[in-house]
Amino acid sequence: MLSSMRLCTVRFVPNILITGGAGFIGVNAVRRFASRGWGVTIFDNFSRRATAYNLEKLHEDVPEGLQVVRGDVRTDTKALKELAEDVDVILHLAAQVAVTTSVIDPRNDFECNALGTLNVLEAVRQSERKPALLYASTNKVYGGLEHMAVEEKEKRYAFAGGVQGVPETVPLDFHSPYGCSKGAADQYVRDYARLYDLKTVVFRQSCIYGPHQMGIEDQGWVAWFLIAGLFKHPVQIYGNGKQVRDLLYVDDLVSCYERAIEKIDTVSGHIFNLGGGHRNTLSLIEFLDLLKQEHGIELSYTFAETRPGDQPIFISDNTAAMQALGWQPQTDVRSGIGNLVAWLKNTKNDLAAFYE
What we know:
The chain is α/β, with parallel strands linked by helices and 356 residues long. The chain is built from 13 helices and 15 strands. Helix content is 41%, strand content 19%.
């Protein structure tokens, strides 16, 4: 009797919910997790430009195992609670992402970032499954970093005294409604891990760039400058152009998300600064030089006043993430920008609908 029985093995398929999954970081995360055999659910209100286009491309690349729920983290609490019962991990990317937009409409910024995150946290807290939660925060929670001495050089700012980056121990100092809303959410995510024993990780992300980034003037400046160059649009540089950012390629960011999921039992409740680090920095002026010299892209630009909340320099100290997660950026800034240039040129005809 036993010899005629067939033994069946049931393969466990992990499931992830990605809020804001039709956005830039979201589509890259969807592709990565789907390629790893995860079941992926996108939760997005499709309010941002090109999200419908991104979804169309995702369906071409991920024909099976992709679920899409049209919803809003500000209001659709019932849907969030139902989804939290069916997934193992939530990657919370849905947000209002521009400082300038937050200044114009602070209420909407608060509702998207602070209230939306609270709704996601409550869905997790009230669920039976208690999925892990990864939250994409921002370096803007550190404010203008006025207490850190800065030197002005020919084409860039630099931290004085040989300081190479900003660690997580730097005091929080929320600037702009965006900084306040993201900072409040950042602290809620951390405290829910402590108070309710949820498995959460916060990533205070620097400048993320890479394929599928539909940059605009207010957000995604690396892609925006490249797109402006391709379509012959003039750009404005706010300040003197010596502002420095560390650039993290999107594939490296998603790799860090994966590491955090693998080590969630040991890193739950932690906060990590996450960026390209001191080896992957550019000022705006240096970036313009690189585009001209290495890619033949020359932009027409003018200078304007510094925008509220704009840091003269931010470089992430990735030490904590490197030690806890065994992670570090793998893509140098020149290679990453080359990849983005190639993607933009290959998709220029599609992009024309959004930028011409």
